[in-house]
Amino acid sequence: MPVPTSELSREIVVYLYPGLTALDAIGPYEMLRGLPGAVVHFVAQQQGLVTVDSGFLKLQADRSCADVTRADILLVPGGNAPAQMGDGAALDWLRRIHAITRWTLSVCTGALILAAAGVLTSGEAATHWSARKRCANLA
What we know:
The protein is α/β, with parallel strands linked by helices. The protein has helices spanning 5-8, 22-32, 81-85, 88-98, 110-117, 132-138; strands at 10-15, 38-44, 48-51, 58-61, 63-64, 73-76, 103-106.
């Protein structure tokens, strides 16, 4: 029996933002890229280099948020979450993409960004221990 097209391709979007923690994006990327049919895109508000929390390392966003209208898997890394929590354009985009993903994932304080976007409305979420109460108050 042929495998449905939706099972052959997995659009995976890793959201990049200034001050993210590189490991929170790269660690899951290393695992997700190995999924059968994985197509991974690093996405930011604007295409180009994004400086991580070290202030030294930069990751390349190959697409802008405006260019991405769907994803099977959305990953939001932790890092400078408070700045993203107040970015209306980022939160709007995350809400739109989350509404059509099969899976929305976060690492560490990335959960705070998802909570600020209003997408942690059911189920459980995990975050860094120091952000647990703040995340619960937002969700």
